[in-house]
Design a protein that fits this description.
This protein is an all-alpha fold. The protein is built from twelve helices and no strands. The chain folds into three domains: 61 residues, no CATH class; 93 residues, lambda repressor-like DNA-binding domains (434 Repressor (Amino-terminal Domain)); 50 residues.
């Protein structure tokens, strides 16, 4: 059966979808709409008219991550409140901290933490092993269900060619956080995080 045949049968059943719609549905790039799947299944002659709906529901469950940024954020917020640490304490912890603005965005559910951010937070709050494993598993599930987060994590797994690149990466990350804060609040400090990040990178590069 060709796609033109599918279109003809679908139109005969009162479902006027075009050939390009069915081509996209069959490509597997993304889950098509429920009505399109039902029309596709009906045109293919499935015996049960509800088969199309069941196929769509199964595909929709697979594409919907069980963990969201908000659910992970809620878990981290509970730990943060229970430990009583300030944002500044976690930023200045020995061995490397987490920038306050970044942590604020993570805790309010605006930004998903990276694997590195999550590890820093868990270490700073002295979270026990079983809870760490559970939260890391939640993070992995979240990343697996979001192509953008997966791409971000993959890019961060590649180490910089020289140590100096780490300064540039931190400066870029801090600038990005600062822009998000300013976009949300509509404010700008006289000496904001973006300028501080640039000066930090330049200073470290000069010393290196």
């Amino acid at each position: 059966m060709t796609f033109k045949d599918l279109v003809a049968k679908s139109q005969a059943c009162g479902r006027p979808y075009g050939e390009s719609t069915f081509l996209r549905a069959a490509s597997g790039v993304r889950v098509p709409g429920r009505e399109v799947v039902e029309a596709f299944a009906q045109a293919c002659g499935l015996a049960d008219p509800n088969d199309g709906a069941r196929l769509w529901e199964a595909a929709d469950r697979e594409r919907t991550p069980k963990v969201s940024v908000q659910t992970l954020s809620a878990e981290l917020s509970k730990i943060h409140k229970a430990r009583g640490h300030t944002l500044r304490t976690l930023e200045n912890r020995p061995g490397g901290g987490l920038p306050r603005n970044t942590l604020r965005l993570i805790l309010d559910g605006t930004r998903a933490p990276s694997a590195r951010h999550l590890d820093i937070f868990l270490a700073g709050c002295k979270v026990p092993g079983p809870t760490r494993s559970r939260l890391r598993a939640m993070h992995e599930e979240l990343v697996a269900g979001d192509p953008k987060l997966a791409a971000r994590e993959e890019s961060r797994r590649t180490p910089p060619p020289t140590y100096i690149c780490g300064f540039a990466e931190r400066a870029h990350e801090t600038s990005e956080t600062a822009r998000e804060i300013k976009a949300r609040t509509g404010t700008r400090d006289d000496f904001d995080e973006e300028e501080r990040a640039i000066r930090y990178a330049n200073h470290k590069a000069a010393r290196w």
